[in-house]
Amino acid sequence: MEQYSIRNFCIIAHIDHGKSTLADRFLELTGAVRPQDMKAQFLDQMELERERGITIKGKAVTMAHTVAAGPDAGDYQLNLIDTPGHVDFSYEVSRALAACEGALLVVDATQGVEAQTIANTLLALQYDLEIIPVINKVDLPSAEPERVAAEMEQIFGFRRDEMVYVSAKSGAGCRELLDAIVARVPPPRGGADDPFRALVFDSTYNTYKGIIAYVRVADGGISRHDRLRVMSSGKSVEIMEVGVFAPEPTPTDTLLAGQVGYVATGFKDVQECAVGDTLTSYAAPATEPLPGYVELKSMVFAGLYPADGEDYTRLRAALDKLKLNDASLSIEPENSGALGFGFRCGFLGLVHLEIVQERLEREYDLDLIVTAPSVAYEVLLTNGEVVRVDNPSLLPQPNAISEVREPILGVTIVAPSRSVGAVMELMHARRSEFRRMEYIQGLAGGADSDQSRVVMEYTMPLGEMLADFYNQLKSRTQGYASLDYTFEGYRAAPLVRIDILVNQTPVEALSMISHRDNAIAQGRSLVEKLRATIPRQMFEVPIQAAIGSRIVARETVRAMRKDVLAKCYGGDITRKRKLLERQKEGKKRMKRVGRVEVPQEAFLSLLKIGDEG
């Protein structure tokens, strides 16, 4: 296939605006999938994706399309990368954009522009892509395509004649959209005769073929008999297989400049071919690597421990394989007195954490204990050194700390104008700072209209988002608000560590860092929830929250009482008293040596602090 006949594009949109359904119609119209094999959300092959109805991993597929008439008449190869919509997986979107020349911006005709729509459009503009605005679901009774077109005109400056109206479910307008992709998305740039260079935008692991790198070929070409070199490490390997996604991996003889496909490298070590690396030819290597991806910093941290200590090695192997397929996951071994050996893992958000946990439990059959999520803080010590603390139990002593800086987010919320007061109240309670507000008027008129919506921008600490923020936002706006956020840096704040003591023993995994103004209330709330989740013992169990050496809250799990007088019929009262005294002594001894098991529900209770808001 000649380079001028190739079009590389991706689909970007907010959650549930129809990306995967539109990809289904493209697969049908181009004949990439046989009718008997077709199923809804075809590219979402992961069981979790089908259950949750969201795309988690970006998917690549090569399609053949023929333009029947006009100046662009001819046969074309279309390389589509379907992307996730959830904010936690925005790194997948950025990787897809780097491999494309164009993007379809899909907007739901019933919902209009949402927070992720704005974020993804700005991201596509950074990569200098040709954006085709697509208004989807125009066949629904509640669709308002003209209002949505006016919103896109107001916010992004698209012209009306640029917009394509489709129904991904029925297929109306989809063939015209394919023709528009051919006409408006430029062919890939890159020299066909230059030394081979390919960017690895994703990878997976196969037991027989080793690491399979998903690549976008920038320059030159490669065949299945060639030898490869990884530019970052200098390691070389004989290629086992090259091919394209059609949509299943289909071996081919060559991959040429502009194409999207895969290379089976045969590497067994997951570190040998990372996402963002440049592959080149061993015989005639390129001198300069392609610009890779900005290394992602994890936003949320949690401890993952095997429920059975013997599964530690299996957990390590499973995390290594997941990291190959998920470049944003960070892993560090750690040891806890209460939970044994495990790993401190970094995630991009709470949904990312949930997905990784579920994949480990389902795909690798592991039984896990997950500690409460926390964020990473920058701590300026009195000696001038700056350290990064992602585990509350590792926060230095107060006398060694000059200041603690917390991560700050730039938050964009799109909500109906009637919910402005409720959103402002929630954001004020979360220590946020207001930036700006803009009404999206559409066709409905001014800011007082019931149809109008508002874009609100705030800065807020990331730690405030962990405590049930998203659920509170949805409930206060009747489910109509949408949220997007970006990391903006660190800012000093009066933060303290809350330690939890169970039976006078600190439980490091339950420690948390909180703002000084909220610390006592959070400590009290936490010990109340723990009292309900920690099972009763044969002895009294005190649960305490401490800030430094000061106890700020206490609850007590009452002891279970065995009836030692059950077999004592009649007789002198001193006999009964003797039995009760012996029981009392036994409970004292048991309290000194007894160990209280903290169940998984106790760690989950940290997530629920702030529910009452």
List the helices and strands and how they pair.
Layout (H helix, E strand, L loop, with lengths): L5 E8 L5 H11 L17 H6 L6 E9 L6 E9 L7 H9 L3 E7 L6 H12 L3 E7 L8 H12 L7 E2 L8 H11 L12 E10 L3 E10 L1 E3 L3 E4 L5 E3 L2 E5 L3 E4 L1 E3 L3 E5 L13 E4 L18 E7 L5 H14 L4 E7 L3 E8 L2 H14 L4 E3 L3 E2 L1 E5 L4 E4 L11 E16 L3 H10 L3 E8 L12 E9 H5 L2 H8 L5 E12 L1 E8 L2 E2 L5 E4 H18 L7 E7 L2 E8 L15 H21 L6 H5 L9
Parallel strand pairs: 1-3, 1-4, 4-5, 5-6
Antiparallel strand pairs: 2-3, 7-8, 7-16, 8-15, 9-14, 10-11, 10-16, 12-13, 12-15, 17-19, 17-20, 17-21, 18-19, 22-23, 22-24, 24-26, 24-27, 25-26, 28-29, 28-30, 28-31, 31-32
Q: What can you see in these coordinates?
A:
The protein starts with 5 loop residues before the first strand and ends in a 9-residue tail after the last helix. The chain is built from 14 helices and 32 strands. It is of the alpha+beta class.
In short:
With 613 residues, the protein is α+β, with helices and mostly antiparallel strands. Helix content is 25%, strand content 33%.
Name the descriptors.
alpha+beta, 613 residues, 14 helices, Alpha-Beta Plaits, globular, 8-stranded antiparallel beta sheet, 5 domains, Elongation Factor Tu (Ef-tu), domain 3, disordered C terminus, 6-stranded mixed beta sheet, 33% strand, Rossmann fold
Mean of residue pLDDT values: 83
Question: What is the assigned CATH homologous superfamily of the largest domain?
Answer: P-loop containing nucleotide triphosphate hydrolases
**What is the helix fraction of residues, given as a range?**
25-40%
Count all strands and give the number.
32
Q: Number of DSSP helices?
A: 14
Please give the radius of gyration in angstroms. Answer: 29 Å
CATH topology of the largest domain: Rossmann fold
Major sheet: order of its strands?
Answer: 11-10-16-7-8-15-12-13
* Distance between the amino and carboxyl termini: 59 Å
- The CATH architecture term of the largest domain is 3-Layer(aba) Sandwich
